[in-house]
Design goal:
The chain has helices spanning 2-6, 10-17, 39-54, 66-74, 83-106, 120-123, 125-140, 163-173, 207-210, 227-240, 253-256, 275-283, 294-302, and strands at 20-25, 58-63, 112-117, 144-149, 178-183, 188-189, 200-201, 203-204, 245-249, 264-266, 288-292, 312-317, 324-328, 334-339, 372-374. It is α/β, with parallel strands linked by helices and 378 residues long. The protein folds into 2 domains: 2-276, Acetylglutamate kinase-like (Carbamate kinase, 3-Layer(aba) Sandwich); 286-374, Archaeosine Trna-guanine Transglycosylase, Chain: A, domain 4 (Roll). Strand 1 (20-25), helix 3 (39-54) and strand 2 form a beta-alpha-beta unit. It is globular, with a radius of gyration of 22 Å. Bound molecules: adenosine-5'-diphosphate and the ligand N[C@@H](CCC(=O)OP(=O)(O)O)C(=O)O.
Length: 378
């Protein structure tokens, strides 16, 4: 093992050595095209997880597949487009999925616990802490948490949308040392490999490695959501928050959870954030936007300084002091998020003005540096 590890990139070594790992598996890797569970594939995944657990790691499994697994029992041919039928399929399928995992892990005398999360569970800070407590207790008890979105109650407006992002959020929530995304494709390519010649990308260490990559939004099976685009976004999110990522195919689960010498490895691109700063930067719902001039962007993003009224050019949204807002540059890119110290209606009279021009009671930072998270993606 030591010999193999020494030949690997730092990101692969980190994934192979991680003591707490979040593994995400997509619908297409667990179900058949006809829309039912594929027990042999599910068992192979569980074999790989049990083996890693046996070697001393703790695993959180984020598993898609509820909707796909519910199709066959309901006699539905294709993934339904309407929300109500998706929810009905998820209701039936999640039960089948949980049952299949419980039986499969039982082969190794491992207990599973089901955790169904809604977007609210990470958007609201108190819910976020609650989910964190539950997952950490499950892990302490030696249970394998099996996480999915609570599809039966999630509506279009409040959905995570895809489990890749959910997995990145859960990885930070449980303070994982690595995230492994398992799909039906063996790696990231510079274009969709189904559509002709595409070059495999083995290592992603910075922006230049993914420049020009075309990542599709739909998968081959029509069973999952998000395609490679959501996997790439989730990998970048986790890597930017200090968590190395391995993207591989579910068929290669044993190698991905073993020596990590397959797939695409994403090196970390930013420091580990505290739970509060991660929540602020990536999970909290934003109630408004503040547009910044170039000087303010530099001060806030590079200089890690507080945002003052003088650097703000425009305001949008209905927010109160204490809400989370996005800070946007002149090209409409979100460059940071933070807790705003003024109500929305107070700001138009203040923006663009230096502190000494403001009345004493309003002479304070609009977003204090301690409440502000610059967004650094690959
Ligand atoms: N640049 C790319 N690199 C690799 N795969 C890609 C790329 N663009 C699109 N894809 C497609 O994305 C699919 C994986 O997405 P999806 O089916 O949603 O996965 P899952 O169900 O595992 O979440 C692959 O089958 C592949 O054809
Ligand atoms: N929560 C949904 C899965 C959503 C999803 O992201 O699916 P996938 O793209 O297969 O990971 C389900 O269990 O059907």
């Amino acid at each position: 093992m030591t010999e193999v590890l020494s030949e690997l990139s730092p990101a692969r070594k980190a994934v192979a050595a991680a003591s707490r790992v979040v593994v995400k598996v997509g619908s297409s890797s667990l179900t058949t095209a006809a829309g039912g569970l594929a027990p042999a594939r599910l068992n192979a995944l569980v074999d790989a997880i049990a083996s890693r657990q046996e070697r001393g790691s703790q695993i959180v499994l984020v598993s898609s597949g509820a909707i796909a697994a519910g199709l066959a029992p309901l006699g539905v041919q294709r993934r339904p487009k309407d929300l109500a039928t998706q929810q009905a399929a998820a209701s039936v399928g999640q039960l089948a999925l949980a049952h299949a995992y419980a039986a499969s892990f039982e082969r190794y005398h491992l207990t599973v616990g089901q955790v169904l999360l809604t977007a609210d569970d990470v958007v609201r800070r108190s819910h976020y802490r609650n989910a964190q407590r539950t997952l950490s207790r499950l892990l302490a008890l030696g249970v394998v948490p099996v996480v999915n979105e609570n599809d039966t109650v999630a509506t279009d407006e409040i959905r995570f949308g895809d489990n890749d992002r959910l997995a990145a959020l859960v990885a930070h929530l449980v303070m994982a040392d690595a995230l492994i995304l398992l799909s039906d494709v063996d790696s990231l390519y510079d274009g969709d490999p189904r559509k002709g010649d595409a070059r495999r990308i083995a290592e992603v260490t910075g922006p230049s490695d993914v420049e020009g990559v075309r990542a599709g939004r739909t998968g081959a099976s029509g069973l999952g959501t998000g395609g490679m685009a959501s996997k790439l976004a989730a990998a970048r999110l986790a890597a930017s928050a200090g968590i190395p990522v391995l993207l591989a195919s579910a068929e290669q689960a044993a190698a991905a959870l073993g020596p990590a010498d397959v797939g695409t490895a994403f090196a970390v691109t930013g420091p580990r954030l505290s739970a509060r700063r991660f929540w602020l930067g990536h999970a909290a719902g934003a109630a408004g936007r503040l547009w910044l001039d170039d000087g303010a962007v530099t001060a806030v993003v590079r200089g890690r300084r507080s945002l003052l009224a003088a650097g703000i050019t425009a305001v949008d949204g209905e927010f109160d002091a204490g809400d989370v807002v996005e800070l946007v540059d002149v090209e409409d890119r979100v460059v940071a998020r933070g807790v705003v110290a003024f109500d929305a209606e107070e700001l138009p009279a203040l923006i663009g003005r230096s502190s000494h021009e403001l009345p004493p009671e309003q002479r304070r930072e609009v977003v204090h540096a301690d409440d502000l998270v610059p967004l650094r993606f690959l």
